[in-house]
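Re: How this chain folds, sequence and tokenised backbone to follow
How to read it: Take the token row as a discrete description of the fold.
Start of record: The labelled sequence and token lines come straight after this line.
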Amino acid sequence: MEHTKCLIIGSGPAGYTAGIYTGRADLHPMLYEGIQPGGQLTITTEIENFPGYPEGISGTAMMADLRKQAERFGTDIRSGAIESIDLSSRPFKAIDDHGNEIEAETVVIATGASARWLGLDSEKHFYGQGVSACATCDGFFYKNLEVAVVGGGDTACEEASYLATLCKKVYQIVRRDELRASKAMQHRVLNDPKIEVVWNSVTEDILGNDMDGVTGARLKNVKTGEIRELDIAGFFVAIGHQPNTAFLNGQLKLDEAGYIKVQNPSSATSVPGVFAAGDVCDPNYRQACVAAAKGCVAGIDVERFLHQ
């Protein structure tokens, strides 16, 4: 069994930044990258709103930079994932997907959250070429163009309202004949002249080609069966996110949506010695720079915990 002062689970901006800070503190952290090294940003074509990259950068390149920086300070970065962990007593015990056992004095959970998708083949095909799950991240690319948002909850309404400040027109595709969002968000959407709510409709297919990316969407009215095609350049899916916490088996306190509860402003969780950072504990912002900041907080919290 291997031993480490700090086990970091996850390799997005939060995980790598936690590695940078704990590495600089001479804690020799061990970091497991998970099934998607670099996290969701590695499938994002271009990032323009992360500080320090005035010309923008691809998600893959930015994660490579963060990875190199964490390695520079001695973070032991490993491929593979942690499949199970016992948080009942310190040192904590984890098992990776190769069956290796790790004993850790502290743990940082930075496993992120995965967007919920419609399940269309075209959705996967055009991801990063017009299909997105983050209006704040990608909305700027569709300035003065027409786009669509799928969903009827608060998140979808927030995305539609944000996109309406940038885009020529926003179609909000809602399966039912009413919005599930709060009254305030409903009022904002229904009174925005740039937003057209398409009621009782589901997306049958996303249209486009490899040169232009998304060019449209085919919708079906669930009540009448009528088919309608939208001419759009961007398609935003806003039907929620699923935090990646299944491997914890309920050992930490979660909120009603399944995100890890932390003791703000720290990154401490309900188990002493276990910290969380990034989208796995952030249902509100889900931004790379916020995740990196929380990774910094977790790294400092780990150092202080071990020195107590």
In short: The radius of gyration is 21 Å. The chain has two domains: 2-114+242-307, 117-237. Residues 2-114+242-307 form a domain with the FAD/NAD(P)-binding domain fold (CATH 3.50.50.60).
